[in-house]
Amino acid sequence: MSLLRLTILALSVLILAACTAQAAPEPDPPAAPSRIPQRQAAAVRASAGPTAAPTLTPPLAGFVAASVYRHGHWDIYLLGADGRLLKRLTFGEGDNRAPAWSPDGSRITFESSRNHNWDLYVINADGSNLRRLTTDAHFDGSPRWSPDGSQMAFTSDRDGDLDIWIMKADGSNPVNITPKTPEPDYDPAWSPNGTQIAFTSMRDGNKEIYLMNADGTQPRNVTQQKATDEEHPAWSPDGARLAFVSERLGARELFALDITSPQVWQRLTALSYDQWPVWSPDGSRVMFVAQSEASQPLQVVLPGQSYVAAVTHDDLLYRQPDWSVGASVTLDAASLQRDDLPLYVEKTTPNAPSRADRYNLVDLQHVKVIVPKLSDTVDDSFEAWRRRVLLESGIDFLGALSEAARPLTYTSDESDYLSWHKAGRAVDLLWDLFTDQGHALEVAREDVLGETYWRMYLRAARQDGSQGEPLREIIWDVSDGARRRANGRGGLIKGVLPGNYVDITELGRQYGWRRISSNEKADFDWHRDFKALEYWHYQKTDGMAWWTAIQEIYTPQELGNLFRYEALVKAKYSLLAMMVKGIPMPADVLQRLRTLEP
Asked: Which CATH superfamily is domain 3-54+66-329 in?
């Protein structure tokens, strides 16, 4: 067994041992916590549970409402607690998110952009009687019922910034109960006895979990972390504990605290990127979204025990689950089989069967870039992404690019020689954008499983609520001036900015275009080198190896010896990188690699 593998297993034992009650950390943790590369972090997490699937006792009960990305839209679905899809409630009219069960399990409220504005809706659990609850031009979202079902708490920016509001369950009499702070307050969660509301607040300069009385009085910070973010609070059914997300250890993990002793935290998950916890109705476990760049399934963890169990086993993306034991739901196969119009159709013109290359590079229409070409296999998805960004933001942001296709012989000390640009499957977006309204492009840092990624936000042209939504992310300033002042930290924190923004990264993912992580090599690190940030780079691989993709558009004669194993070795390209890219290797080299320990 390799030293690396031993280190990983030892680290996993230490991590699991730490998943017990522990005092909250000092308020000022290190500015740059140690980080584990993504492959190692994934291996640690995989080794955290027993080899055999655990038997969950008591068995999972009740029903889950969740927002599910399926058929090109975020829609509300009902699932069994075992993860089986049972019923689809909404059908691709805008995005539909943040479902919440009524206390009696008969209805579900959710946020939707179906009328070109984020508003709250309610629907019966059987799919009937859809009603719109709010009609304000501002953002309304994250609804949560009061325990007696008479009121709803929700998030809105009607007073100029995100606040916690309360209204009657029919949508009448909305009242702002956090009106005195200009910083965002969001994600309300009503205590089971109805006397308190937990929420996420940025009033202290970062994200913290706050508690307040149900009328908005006596707000107090219960997490008390000055340099890390905590959000997404969820009450246990007995009202004794709060589960939440924290980044205090460098990852994005789940913790729980005792309401009577909030300084004592219990770590629930380790070395992960977790979102949106919710307790089971009996309080025995916590369900959450386990997010990575490739997947976003539902999982459960049993507090105090050492394993995480999968709930969903498909390739769908999930977010914001809510769990009810009082609901009565049956399978509705017809709702699950209903098809939506696809987001786009990739139209290709294959070459003659006698040709070694199956497709060509094709021209991008009216796109400003030095080489306006992409592979015929991805150009339609790019154009559809471009149109969607224009529709959502009012700005043709993808109508100008920093780079698209790249010549086969292109070399640079700051670029991968085996770049997806050469395969016609990558684009570099603009690094910045200024409009008549000022600075329009912003980036937020996301550390996912040990690697640094960036999310791109475009300020909407119309700020009347019909485009985009308010930010709930900490924005970074990575300009030259900020980087010079940052003393090797790669940039400075701007904070949360006012206004409505469109998530370019999320829209790209819907069309198959994925971001990449920033470089952190010894000689090319994003903290020092601007071009190592790579927040502008998106590529569409369709699950193929690079070598397979580039052979789609070039003949063996055109490729020549440019990417032969011997040439790459001479250029000091690593064996691991060649394996990832799918470069053909000599049989003796492959044999040696197969004999190595994983």
From this structure: TolB, C-terminal domain (2.120.10.30)
